[in-house]
Amino acid sequence: MSTEVTTDSKAADSAATGAAPASPALVSAPTAVDATVILAGGRTRARTFSWSRVAYGVLGLILSAAIWELVSCLKDDPVILPTVQKTVSTFWDYLTQKYPAVQGKTLWRHALVSAARILAGWGAGVVIGVALGGVMASVRVIRYLLDPIIEISRPLPPLAFIPLFIVWFGIGETPKFILILIGVVPVMIIATVSALDAVPKELVQASRSLGASPLWSLLTVRLRSALPGIITGMRLAMGGAWTSIVAVELIAATSGLGYLINNAGVNLQTPLVLSGILAISVLGITFDGLLRLLHRFADPTSR
Fold this sequence. Notes:
Layout: H1 2-17, E1 36-38, E2 44-46, H2 51-75, H3 84-94, H4 107-138, H5 140-153, H6 162-169, H7 173-197, H8 201-209, H9 214-251, H10 257-266, H11 270-298
Antiparallel strand pairs: 1-2
Helix pairs in contact: 3-11, 4-5, 4-7, 4-9, 4-10, 4-11, 6-7, 7-9, 8-9, 9-10, 9-11, 10-11
C-alpha cells in the first residue's frame, strides 16, 4: 500500500514539474534458467552452454551420413560412391598404412605436409597483411598509394597464377608458399584496416592525451581493440589458404593431400579420395577451432 502511495506521489510531482514520470524498477537478479549478459547496444547473450546447438549439429551430421549411405546403397557402385562405413574404414586404415602409389607415405604424413605448407604461407601472410594494414590505417598517403593495388589484386583468384608460378619457380615449395601468401595478404590487409577504422576515436584521443606516441597508441590501444576483427580475418584467410594449397598440390606436387587425392582418383581409389577430403575437413575444423578459441580470449563479449 505504501509503495503505491509513493509511486503515485512521484508521478504527481513529475506531472507538476513537466518531467516524464519515472518508471518503476523492473530489474531483478538473473536466475539459473535466464542467465544472460547485457552487451553493448542492449543485446543479450546466453551465459550458459547451449546443448541444443550441439544436438542440432550432431543431428545434421547424422542426417547427412544417412543420405550418403542411402544414395550409395541405391547406386550400388563403390567406384562412384562408396558407403560411409567403407570410407571411414579406409580413412582409418591409411592413417597408419602406406599407400604405394603415393610415394609410400601414410595419409597422416601427407596431411602433415599440407598442414606445414598452410601454416608457413598463412603465417607469413598474416604478419605481412597485419603490418601493411596497420600502416595503411595510420598513414593516409600510404593508404592512398596501396589501396588501388589491393583493390585490383583482391578479386584475382590465386589459382589463376598456378601456370605462371610453375614456369617461374618450378614445382618445388616456393610456388606453393607464394600462392598461399598472395591469397592471405589482401584478406588480412582489408580485415586489419576495417578493424582499426572501427576503433572508437575517443580511445585513441585518451591515449594521446596521456602522452602516448602515435606508434605506441597503435600498438597498445588500436590493435588491441581491433584484435577480434583481425582474428576474424585470419579465419577467412585460413579457408582460402586450404583451397589454394589443395589446388596446387593437385597439379604441381609429389606429396600432400591434394597429390594423394589426385593420385587416388587416377587409380579409381574412391574411398581414398574421400579419405583425403575427410582429412582436409578435419584439419580445417581443427585450425578454425583454435582461431575461434583465440577469438574468445581476445573478445570478452564472446565468452
